[in-house]
Write a structure and sequence with these properties.
alpha/beta; Rossmann fold; 2 domains; 7-stranded mixed sheet; two-stranded antiparallel ribbon; 14 helices; globular; cytoplasm; HAD_sf
């Protein structure tokens, strides 16, 4: 063993023996971290302890640490916004997804605040409902009533102290009231494209890579949204990334013969019933029986059930965007999602994982050679 490596090995053992190994979110004492080939210390913010402390202490059989392997495979996992409760388990899932490749992979994603930005330049970005609510077509009186509903029900939706059972009927109540108000506004079908064009809708940074990579690799993308399907489809179309591999399950508008909004089609989909109970087109998952590996993307506890309609799940990697009320909800997200992205407005981590799973870098290297 070279002298430098021997020295680092000895120092590593001493360091790990002298520091308590914990993933507590409430510790703030300095940590000795092993990243790449260097040792360094820093006082970690509580949000970083889960990933940094855990991966620094796991050694691989070939002498490399978990941090080195994760870093080599998906460099974006080392971003400060990334949190993991069980990094080794994440590593194993990613390896399994890579072995399966594109032929076994499907992606299931929420839309609002998952594929779209939560905020930009200190300002909240609109959801698909907000885009319609804030449009010039909606009367001031209706806008006020819709905002009153938002201010009353949204805190309930994200309240970590309430159970899903408590929230469920209240979400139905909120969506139903909002739908009834919108149906009074004489919205016409042809106006949807202009409403979106005039809005501040923003997909997350890296969206082109995300959508185009999945399309190029023939990986199906199910967008399972409690928003408005007509609006979100138009957003994706105007961004020129609505490809044939995309299937959307959402609340779609129902227009009368004259083209005016008269209601919404099918089952009402809200935050906490995004599961097989509202999937009218059950044939979607039947057609994808060979796609047993799943990458799931969401931003709420309700998004965790989006893959329930998949009959046979081989491996599933759940990535959660923690956008709001971070301190109050961090622990629960870490318990529920494999990877938590805290206040991250990009799709960098998702794209990095996809590139690795689909072996795009390897294929590019082979083509160049």
């Amino acid at each position: 063993m070279p002298l430098k490596e021997a020295f680092l090995s000895i120092e590593k053992k001493r360091a790990l023996a002298s520091w308590p190994r914990t993933t507590s979110l409430h510790l703030s004492k300095p940590r000795l971290l092993h990243l790449g080939n260097e040792f360094w210390t820093r006082r970690l913010a509580p949000a970083q302890l889960v990933l940094k402390d855990a991966i620094s202490s796991v050694a691989r059989a070939d002498g490399r640490t978990m941090a080195e392997e994760v870093k080599e495979q998906v460099k974006d996992l080392m971003k400060a916004t990334v949190l993991m409760r069980h990094p080794q388990q994440v590593q194993e899932i990613i390896c399994s997804l890579r072995k399966g490749g594109p032929n076994k992979l499907q992606v299931i994603s929420d839309f609002d605040m998952t594929l779209t930005r939560f905020g930009f330049n200190g300002k909240r970005c609109p959801t698909s409902y907000n885009i319609l609510d804030n449009s010039k077509l909606i009367s001031e009186d209706c806008q006020k009533k819709l905002k009153d509903l938002l201010h009353y029900y949204y805190p309930i939706e994200i309240d970590p102290n309430r159970t899903v059972k408590e929230k469920f009927p209240l979400m139905v109540e909120w969506w139903t009231k909002a739908h009834n108000l919108l149906c009074q506004q004489k919205i016409q079908k042809y106006q949807i494209s202009q409403i979106v064009r005039d809005s501040d809708a923003m997909l997350r940074e890296g969206f082109e890579t995300f959508f185009n990579t999945l399309y190029r690799s023939n990986v199906p993308l199910l967008i399972f949204s409690a928003g408005i399907g007509d609006i979100l489809e138009e957003i994706i179309r105007q961004m020129n990334v609505f490809h044939p591999n995309i299937h959307v399950v959402s609340n779609y508008m129902d227009f009368d013969e004259s083209g005016y909004l008269q209601g919404f089609k099918g089952h009402l989909i809200h935050t906490y019933n995004k599961n097989s109970s509202v999937l009218e087109d059950s044939k979607y998952f039947e057609q994808l029986q060979a796609k047993t590996n799943i990458l799931l993307l969401g931003d709420s506890m309700g998004d965790l059930t989006m893959a329930d309609g998949v009959s046979s799940v081989g491996n599933i990697l759940k990535i959660g965007f923690l956008n709001d009320k971070v301190e109050e909800r961090r622990e629960r997200y870490l318990d529920s999602y494999d990877i938590v992205l805290e206040k991250d407005e990009t799709l960098d981590v998702v794209n990095g994982i996809l590139t690795h799973i689909l072996c795009e870098a390897d294929q590019a290297g082979m083509q160049e050679s």
